[in-house]
């Protein structure tokens, strides 16, 4: 019986092939381009419409916090899910100005959606390892 030589080559196992940059994307972004002339005719300022747009998508913090057991809690006011379900629903959201006039957000702005953006995740100013 003859014994041969066996060569064993050790390679390190692959732990992660993603570097945390190219493969990390955020959700789609919603962009509101306000037509300032149309908004002014409807009785709205661009600042008011930007607050409304933010309240539809993310919610807006209240001006004064609510006090519970001597602790202040800031509430976030957000439009109902039906108003943010789609771009069409956001565009069709009816707004009331200070004089009681109404207009839809879509009549004063164009609402578009951008694809997800590449993002770098950081924790304590250090890039996160996934």
Task: Characterize the overall form.
Answer: globular
Q: Nearest-angstrom radius of gyration?
A: 26 Å
Helix content: 10-25%
The structure class reads alpha+beta
| Neighbour order of strands in the largest sheet | 1-8
* Share of β-strand residues: 15-25%
CATH architecture heading of the domain at 29-116? 2-Layer Sandwich
CATH class division of the domain at 29-116? Alpha Beta
CATH topology of the domain at 29-116: Multidrug efflux transporter AcrB TolC docking domain, DN and DC subdomains
**Oligomerization status of the protein chains:** single chain
Number of helices: 4
Number of strands: 10
On the 0 to 100 scale, the average pLDDT is 79
Order of helices and strands: EHHEEEEHEEHEEE
Low-confidence stretches: none
Nutshell version of this structure?
The chain is of the alpha+beta class. It has four helices and ten strands. Strand 6 (94-96) and strand 7 form a beta hairpin.
Describe the structure.
A hairpin with a 2-residue loop joins strand 9 (122-123) and strand 10 (126-127). This protein has 130 residues and is α+β, with helices and mostly antiparallel strands. The two termini are 51 Å apart. It contains four helices and ten strands, in the order βααββββαββαβββ. The protein has helices spanning 36-42, 46-57, 87-91, 105-108; strands spanning 29-34, 60-61, 66-68, 71-73, 76-77, 94-96, 102-104, 109-114, 122-123, 126-127. The chain has a two-stranded antiparallel ribbon with strand order 1-8. A two-stranded antiparallel ribbon has the order 2-5. Strands 3-4 form a two-stranded antiparallel sheet. It has a domain at 29-116: Multidrug efflux transporter AcrB TolC docking domain, DN and DC subdomains (2-Layer Sandwich). 22% of the residues lie in helices and 25% in strands. It is globular, with a radius of gyration of 26 Å.
